[in-house]
């Protein structure tokens, strides 16, 4: 078969390369630069970018063949395999980084003074103990903590469980001059969704 690569949109594309292109799907506009397929820059258009990876995956091989001169079908396929490998590596790195970021955030929340104070408040509240039973265990918290110098604010929630029941604790705490105070902690009973205030008054807030 005649080498029709680089012939533009009207060029005939060999049937054997008309297949899904993982490199184009995973690397989108980066792959587009390397394969003279600049329609991939639609990745930067809002809403359109949601569909473009799939469009590139389906049509990428055809466009790359038509837009760039290749020595042969074999050379084209070998290059696309490299792009696929690069995409898989990039995806793996992204997953590792995102997992590490998630674990780091959870660790910061779980080791925060606000979370520790709230857990202590649950275990020290007689009504909470009556609802949950003992021992009481707590899950990883979700929410956010913002700190600016010696001041800060925390808004967290986490699940608690005991032999008699389950619930969710909602927490609001503030830090002033390096000291954290539990402003409000509420336990919601998972059984009937009733809430009780488990905030402990503390004239000597915990230090971080």
Notable characteristics:
6 strands, six-stranded antiparallel β-sheet, disordered C terminus, 2 domains, 5 helices, alpha+beta, elongated, 208 residues
Percent in helix: 40-55%
Beta-strand fraction estimate: 15-25%
Total beta-strand segments:
6
The residue ranges in which pLDDT falls below 50 over 5 or more consecutive positions are: 201-208
State the order of secondary-structure elements, H for helix, E for strand. Answer: HHHHHEEEEEE
Oligomer: single chain
User: What is Rg?
Assistant: 28 Å
Count of helix runs: 5
Q: What summary fits the major beta sheet? A: 6 strands, antiparallel
Basic shape: elongated
| Straight-line N-to-C gap | 73 Å
Derived from helix and strand composition plus strand pairing, the structural class reads alpha+beta
Mean of residue pLDDT values: 92
Total discrete domains: 2
What does this structure look like?
This protein is of the alpha+beta class and 208 residues long. The chain has two domains: 15-108, no CATH class; 112-197. It is 43% helix and 23% strand. The chain contains five helices and six strands, in the order H-H-H-H-H-E-E-E-E-E-E. It is elongated. Mean pLDDT is 92; it is low at 201-208.
